[in-house]
Write a structure and sequence with these properties.
Layout (H helix, E strand, L loop, with lengths): L1 E4 L5 H13 L3 E6 L4 E6 L8 H4 L4 E5 L19 E3 L2 E3 L5 E5 L6 H14 L3 E3 L17 H14 L2 E5 L6 H7 L2 E4 L7 H8 L5 E4 L6 H13 L5 E5 L17 H8 L4 E3 L1 H5 L2 H13 L4 E5 L17 H17 L5
Parallel strand pairs: 7-8, 7-14, 8-9, 9-10, 10-11, 11-12, 12-13, 13-14
Antiparallel strand pairs: 1-3, 1-4, 2-3, 5-6
Helix pairs in contact: 3-4, 3-11, 6-7, 10-11
Bound molecules: phosphoenolpyruvate and manganese (II) ion (MN).
Phosphoenolpyruvate binds next to loops.
C-alpha cells in the first residue's frame, strides 16, 4: 500500500503515520518529493483497512498495490488450475460441456435429456434440485428426490453431475449426490455458504452475481480457496445492464479478464447470459473464442412445458448443433471439444 500525504503535511503527522505502520508490524519506506511525501507500506497489505490511515491527519489517500485476493490470483499460481471431476478435466486442453435442464422436473424428463445431451457430446450433466427462484410462487425444485434422479442419470450415462446448493446446512446432503456443487449467482456473496463449500471436498462451480464485479467474483472464490477447497471453477453467466431485450448481458470481456487475473478455470453460461434460445449458440461460440474453458448450457426436450427457463433452453438437436459449431471455434483457438 502507498500512503500519499497531503501537500504541507507536517513532520509530526508523517511521524505519526510511520509509527502506526511500525505498530502494525509493517515497514515504512519514506519518499519525500518537492510537494508531497509518500510512504510505502512494506508487507502484505491485504489484512490492512485503508481507513486505518485515511482517517489520520495529513493523509490525502491510500493506494493499494496488491489485488485484494491472493490464492485466486495468477500471481500466486501461474499455471491454470485443472479441476478433476470424475474422468473429466476442466481447465485443460479439452473444453468442458455441461448441459441439461434448468430444473430436474421428473425422472422421465431428466433421463431423457441426460441421454440426449450425452449423445450430443456433453461431458457433464447439469440440473437443479434446489432452485433459487425470483418468485416464492414459482417451482422451487424437487429437493432430495431431484438429487436421487440426478444420481440415477449419472449411473445410466456416466455423466458427472453439476447441481446447485443454496444453503450451508445442505452442503453435506448435496455433496452425497453431486460431483460439482454449483453456487448460484444470487448466492455469490453468501459467505456462510462459500465457507461451507470451502470445507467440502467437492469441486465448486461459482457463478458470478448478476450485479457483481470481476473483483467481487474473485473475492468470493478467495473465500472458498481460503477455507481449503482449491477445486473452484468460475462462471460468467451475464450481468444486469440497461438492456432489456436480453435477460442479462453476457460479459465477454470477463473471460479474458479472468483468464489474465486468475488461475481458476472459467466457464461461460450463454443460457442465462442471453435468456433467449436463438442467441445461445452464437454467444456460446463467442465465449469459446474468448478463451472459456467450458460451457454450461440449458437443454430441454420440451421447452414449452419446462418448469423454469424454457425460453433459454435448447432442444437436444439444437444443442448437438451447438457442440458441432463450437468444435470448429475450439480448434481455431487451440482447444478441443
Ligand atoms: C441456473 O443455473 O439454473 C441458475 C439459477 O443460474 P444463475 O444462478 O446463474 O441464475
Ligand atoms: Mn436456469
Amino acid at each position: 500500500m502507498i500512503i500519499v500525504m497531503k501537500a504541507g503535511a507536517s513532520p509530526a503527522e508523517i511521524k505519526h503515520v510511520t509509527r502506526r505502520i511500525d505498530e502494525l508490524g509493517y515497514a515504512a519506506h519514506l519518499s519525500e518529493g518537492t510537494e508531497r511525501t509518500i510512504i510505502g507500506v512494506i508487507g502484505d497489505e491485504r489484512p490492512l483497512e485503508s481507513a486505518t490511515f485515511e482517517v489520520m491527519d495529513g493523509v490525502e489517500k491510500t493506494i493499494s498495490i496488491l489485488p485484494p485476493y491472493k490464492l485466486a490470483s495468477r500471481e500466486w499460481r501461474r499455471e491454470t488450475t485443472v479441476v478433476d471431476v470424475g474422468t473429466t478435466k476442466i481447465g485443460g486442453q479439452e473444453l468442458a460441456m455441461m448441459a441439461g435442464p434448468c430444473s430436474v422436473e421428473s425422472r422421465s424428463q431428466l433421463l431423457e435429456i441426460a441421454h440426449a445431451v450425452k449423445e450430443a457430446g456433453a461431458t457433464m450433466l447439469r440440473g437443479g434440485a434446489y432452485k433459487p427462484r425470483s418468485s416464492p410462487y414459482s417451482f422451487q425444485g424437487m429437493g432430495v428426490e431431484g438429487l436421487e434422479i440426478l444420481a440415477e442419470a449419472r449411473e445410466q450415462t456416466g455423466l458427472a453431475i453439476v447441481t446447485e446448493v443454496m444453503a450451508p446446512d445442505k452442503v453435506d446432503l448435496v455433496s452425497e449426490y453431486a460431483d460439482v456443487l454449483q453456487i448460484g449467482a444470487r448466492n455469490m456473496q453468501n459467505y456462510a455458504l462459500l465457507l461451507a463449500v470451502g470445507k467440502s471436498s467437492r469441486p465448486v462451480l461459482l457463478k458470478r452475481g448478476m450485479m457483481s464485479t470481476i473483483e467481487e467474483l474473485l473475492m468470493s472464490a478467495e473465500y472458498i480457496l481460503s477455507a481449503g477447497n482449491y477445486n473452484v471453477m468460475l462462471c460468467e453467466r451475464g450481468i444486469r445492464t440497461f438492456e432489456t431485450y436480453t435477460r442479462n448481458t453476457t460479459d465477454i470481456n470477463a473471460i479474458p479478464a479472468l483468464k489474465h487475473l486468475t488461475h481458476l478455470p472459467v466457464i461461460g453460461d450463454p443460457s442465462h447470459g442471453t435468456g433467449r434460445w436463438p442467441l445461445v449458440a452464437p454467444v456460446a461460440r463467442a465465449l469459446v473464442a474468448a478463451g472459456a474453458d467450458g460451457l454450461i448450457i440449458e437443454v430441454h426436450h420440451d421447452p414449452e412445458h419446462a418448469l423454469s427457463d424454457g425460453a433459454q433452453s435448447l432442444k437436444p438437436e439444437r444443442f448437438a448443433q451447438l457442440v458441432r459449431e463450437t468444435r470448429l471455434i475450439a480448434e481455431a483457438v487451440g482447444r478441443t471439444v
